[in-house]
Amino acid sequence: MQTVAITLSFFIASMLLSFNNAAATAYKGIEFPAGIVSFADRVISYMPGTGGVGSGYDDPQHALGVPDYLLTPPGTIAYTSMGSGGSLVLKFTDNSLATSGSNAPDLWVFEIGGFEATEVFISGNGSNWIDVGATSSSMRGIDIDAFESSGVLPGSRYAYVKLIDLTVGSNGYSAGADIDAVGAISSAAPIPNPEPGTMALMAVGLGDMAWWRGKTRRK
């Protein structure tokens, strides 16, 4: 068990070191220390709201990766329209959103066109959500450290971001907020999904601990 623990510790330390050494890159004037891996890269769910979202504008895959609106050929749709009251859940798989310990923005939502606000939630497991406020025309970056009273824990990491459109009465083929990308400015190593073997080792370890405590009490 000690060998396994040392191996896991070395693996985690190696991942953190690779993030610290990543090449910082600026996207639309916003610097991301971890570069290209900073952005959400998996769609978990998408439910367009009312007001009408046209074909092509309803593809949630367009909200993944780096902000590429204006970098694609003319006529190419490179963003996801939410529709009035729609929701979009994205996941970071090769990184995670982390607290920074400062009041600087940790998360940035890239929205194109005339600004339309969204309420933002984060989660470590995709089930328990923490509301970290809304974007606005003057604030598209969010300092998640400021929401400790809502449940954000210092030093914690989050894999999921949920956006809920706040527009009312928006209509047309690209109704609601138009999301180009979601990026973690404060980025850390990804949150691992425990493999069956790892879960088994954890179970054995917990069993050993219970046995030892019981033995100690009997003594």
List keywords for this structure.
219 residues; 2 domains; globular; Jelly Rolls; 2 helices; alpha+beta; disordered C terminus
The pLDDT mean sits at 82
Query: What's the CATH topology name of the largest domain?
Result: Jelly Rolls
User: How many structural domains in the coordinates?
Assistant: 2
Strand order of the largest sheet: 3-5-12-8-9
**Which bin fits the share of residues in helices?**
10-25%
Largest sheet: 5 strands, antiparallel
What coarse outline follows from CA principal-axis ratios? Answer: globular
Distance between the termini: 25 Å
The amount of beta strand, in percent, is: 25-35%
Label the CATH architecture of the largest domain: Sandwich
Tell me, what is the CATH class of the largest domain?
Mainly Beta
SSE ordering: HEEEEEEEEEEEEEEH
Low-confidence stretches: 1-18, 195-219
Number of DSSP helical runs = 2
Rg from alpha-carbon coordinates? 20 Å
What is the tally of beta strands? 14
Q: Would you tell me the structural class of the helices and strands?
A: alpha+beta
What is this structure's SSE topology?
Blueprint (H helix, E strand, L loop, with lengths): L1 H19 L4 E3 L2 E3 L9 E6 L32 E2 L5 E5 L4 E3 L8 E5 L6 E6 L6 E5 L6 E2 L14 E2 L1 E6 L12 E7 L2 E2 L7 H23 L1
Antiparallel strand pairs: 1-2, 3-5, 4-13, 5-12, 6-11, 6-14, 7-10, 7-13, 8-9, 8-12
Write up this protein:
- This protein has helices at residues 2-20, 196-218; strands spanning 25-27, 30-32, 42-47, 80-81, 87-91, 96-98, 107-111, 118-123, 130-134, 141-142, 157-158, 160-165, 178-184, 187-188.
- The chain has 219 residues and is of the alpha+beta class.
- The chain has 2 domains: 22-188, Jelly Rolls (Sandwich); 193-219.
- Strands 3-5-12-8-9 form a 5-stranded antiparallel β-sheet, with no helix packed on it.
- The protein is globular.
- The model is unreliable at 1-18 and 195-219 (pLDDT under 50).
